[in-house]
Amino acid sequence: MIGIDLTIVNIALPSVQRTLHMSDPTRQWVVTLFALCYGGLLLLGGRLSDLAGRRRSLLIGLTGFAMASALGGAATSPAMLLASRGLQGVFGALLTPAVLATLAASFPLPAERGKAFGIYGTAMGSASGLGVLLGGVLTDYLDWRWCMFVNLPVAALAAAGVLYAVRPAPRVEGVRIDWAGAVLATAGLMGLVFGFARAEPDGWGAPVTFLPLVGGVLVLTAFVLVQRKAGSPLLPLRVVLNRRRGGSYLAVFSLAVGMFAALFFLTFYLQNVLHYSPVRAGVAFLPITAGLMLGVRAVSRLLARASVRLLLAPGLLTIAAGLGLLGTVRADSGYWLHVLPVLALVGAGAGWSLVAANSIATLGAGPDTAVAGAMVMTSQQIGASLGTALLSTIAGTAAAHHHAATRAESAVYGFNVASLGAAAFLCLAAAAVFLITGKKDPAP
């Protein structure tokens, strides 16, 4: 539900804009505000999950998310819709760490753990593609408001499942909220996400882009200094400095850079170059889910016996291969020979990496499990924001300086350059993860 909501409104935005008489600058905030609140509050959500207990956090998160969705579906003004998107991000930031902590606590055995995180990885990894498809279908055949209302039955079913299957667990003893750290982490992460979101429409040199990015880096630097001295830190530095977890966070950050950039480019390619309808474009993304399931199935069998470096690096290299193929696509390329292999490879690599990283990051974290899981999703959010902004800028610059017969050819050339750059970055990231994790680190 959370993963789908990151992309489901993208296809519906033109309809939303017409219905609510929304300006172009305001329209972008429908997407940005959700990512801003979700990415900025994940670390605090992890600590609140420890404080309130996993079961209670799941129920509060689901209820709040459903109410926020209902508010958005009933929106009569842009302000009402934007408020609902922000609240979705807030409750999503409480819900995700609680989900990861529940999985880690419920399935301690390696074989069960592999299957549980495999299902989780399939759900989260395929959500972006499914969100595009669902958004197109609901907008075309019903109304854009159903992109919000669809969360209500999902949340109700999930809450019933939590009440039935998740046992009440004792709260983690000694947990206190580091409010200074919470304010610094939230402000710093929001600054980064906001700056990256403004980079594409306004340019990297614009004050609205440059100042939040610089401010975000400075505030996060202050956050690290505060965490070193805090008695009950929001993010204990031992979580990040552990080589196994550090490698996991770098892997997730890198896969998000490549995966979300590929989804962004292919959405434009299918609709603007190949002239697919929104629904057809959504269906065309389904092979990414098949690839995810293959990647998840493969790595789930290896979780109990392979070394950490061999679990993390192959997924990144598989995504790099898909991006390399995307770098060869032309304006007159066909779907079956050129686009489908890209989707399959990116999906397989993302499924592999997500499952391995989530399982490794939360393994043996004890009282830090929720925060360790929150850092995985924080890494993914920052990577997705940076990848989309940076690679879109590279693609736009390359297209503007390329002289071609048609605008479509120039746009595709820009996609090629950015995709090959992303493939090179992922290869370097795979090497870095391989070195960081170290060969002496035991398998999960």
TrEMBL record:
It is found in: Cell membrane. GO terms for cellular component: plasma membrane. The chain crosses the membrane at residues 29-46, 58-81, 87-105, 117-138, 144-165, 177-197, 203-226, 247-269, 281-299, 311-329, 335-361, 382-401, 413-436. It is a multi-pass membrane protein. This is MFS transporter. The keyword Cell division does not apply. It comes from Actinomadura barringtoniae. Residues 1-441 form the Major facilitator superfamily (MFS) profile domain. CDD domains: MFS_MMR_MDR_like. GO terms for molecular function: transmembrane transporter activity. Pfam families: MFS_1 (PF07690).
